[in-house]
Each structure stands twice: as structure tokens, then as C-alpha cells.
């Protein structure tokens, strides 16, 4: 009888709490609600020490807090939640602790995929963000399985940063951008070489037992480090008149019969002098090919003959290329970052993405985080919302 009364009282209290929480969230929703909240889950080990727990149990307590926070965020209408679960730096911890964390991660990934879990209940998509190659094969396979299993979910998104640091993410993005550009350039040059070979077939015959070769991208000249050749110039291993162009110290050196080192030095000194004045001359009849400074400011190079624009000067790698290859490219930048335990450092977490994200640092350790801390987060965000929006528009 007493047990039934106790259960009934607990159920009544739970119903009352749910009603109060929904009412509270409805009031908060009158203001701006963050689309993306990022959590640095700090203080699990300190919590275990504080509660005299066995080492590692603090992380289990932290996982329970994470599930509660995911529930609250979903009810509040937050679309993206990112958590800093395991840094690359954490691999430097004691091997037993690292192994415990990896085993715990395997256990919780499996738990998240079970029927009736928070992932299936809320239609949550999972992303594991970071250098997954650093994980053991077992953990990496489990992470990939979870991402594949939830790929069709779209109501909310959970991004779990493991084997992650911002430095590694930025280096990865730059490397991927360079490889993509190089592949594009090689494909374009191969295509051009094929077209030029077809168009110019027979224009260079075998001379002195040497086969002629074509210059790829033969519509360019070289001016101040930019390659420029005439439209019909074909290099036949030095046997044509002014066909071959070679860069030396950023200045044009043309393959002309009888061209010697002494003559090269004279031309080099002359052209460097003209470079300092902002012009380059052809070296043949004094015709000015280009005024460098004004054209650089416009971002174009002209041929100097008929005013035809040959090339736009553009950076090979730009901001969009790098951002496209970021691990976090699957989500918008965080609206606010929360780090528990009162710490105010980002610790190499989302450095690229948080330029306009306020940092909120409650004193509570991560396993102690609860509903009222999330309310504080939202109020802090709403208080700074207008200022942050203004700064984002100015950027």
C-alpha cells in the first residue's frame, strides 16, 4: 500500500514538473532561441573525485546529464547540439583511462541506436566529428554505423566531437582544398592538352630527331609571376622563334636562338627596373605590355595588344573552399558555447566557427548541469542577441 502511494506521488510530481517545464519553455520562446548550442562537457573527473566515486564513473554520470540536456534542448526547439566528447589531446591520458572512455563510447553508441532511445524518439541524426582514423577500428566502425543508421533523420542533429581539435580540423580542410584544386587543374590541363593536340596536329614536324611538344594553357604570357603566351605560340623544344617562356626570379626568360647568360642578365636588370616602376616592356620594341599596379587592383591582366582580358587574378584557395572541407560543415556555426565547471577557455574547440559565439561558463561541473543552467544559457543568449546579430552582419 505504501509503495503504491509512493509511486503515485512520484508520478504526480513528474507530471507537474513536465507541465512546469513546458510552460517555462513557452515563455522563453517569446524571445530568440539558439539554433545551435555547443557544449564543452568539463568536470567529469572532478565530479567523481568530489563524490568519492571510482575513477571513470564520473563519465557515466556525465552521460546521464547529456541525455537530460538533449531532452531539454529538443523540447526548447534547439535544432543542432554539439558536444566535445574526446579531444586528440586526451589520447595523452593514462592508457587505462583512454581505454575506459573508448569502451564507454562503444557502449553508449549501441545504446543510442536501440529502439526507443532518445535518437529514435526524437528523429535525431548523429554525426561523429573529428579525425576518426585515430580511433580504434572497433570504435570507428560503430561510429560509422551510427551515422549511417540515422542518416535519414532530420528533426534534430547531434554532433559528437571525438578525436577532435580545431587545429586538426583546419589543417585537414586546407589539405582537402589543395587536393581538390590540384585535381581540378590536372583535369583541366589534360582536357586542354587533348584539344590542343587535335587542333595543332601536324603544325610541328619532327626536327633533328626530336619530337615537338605543346605548351599546356598556351593562351598565357608570364608577367610578374603570371604565365602569358601568345595565342598561336607552340614550343618545339626551342626551335621556334619566341615560343618557349621560362620563369627566372619572377621575370620572363624567352628561349631565343643565340640567347646567352650575359644577355639574360641585361634583360633581367632592365625588366626588374621596369617592375619597380609598375610597368613591364616586351623587350622587343619597347611596347608596354602591362601596367601592373592598377590592373592588379582591378584583378585583371590585359594583353596590351587589343585590350583583351587574358586572365583574372584570383587566389587559388579561398575562404569558401576551406569552409566546405571543415568537419563541421554539416552544421551552422554555434549560436552560443557552454563550458561547465566555470572554465572560460575553448581548449581548441570550434575555434574557426565561434568568432561570434558568446561563451557561457556556469560553475557547475558537467554531471551537475540541469534545467536551470539551460535557462540561464538561453537568457544570456537573448540578452546579447541584438549585439551579436549586428556584429555578424558587419562581418
Automatic annotation (TrEMBL):
Catalytic EC class: transferase
Cellular component terms per the entry's GO annotation: cytoplasm
Keyword Acyltransferase attached: no
Protein keywords: Transferase
Molecular function in Gene Ontology: transferase activity
Family under the similarity heading: Belongs to the UPP synthase family.
Cited function: Catalyzes cis-prenyl chain elongation to produce the polyprenyl backbone of dolichol, a glycosyl carrier-lipid required for the biosynthesis of several classes of glycoprotein.
Record's protein name: Alkyl transferase
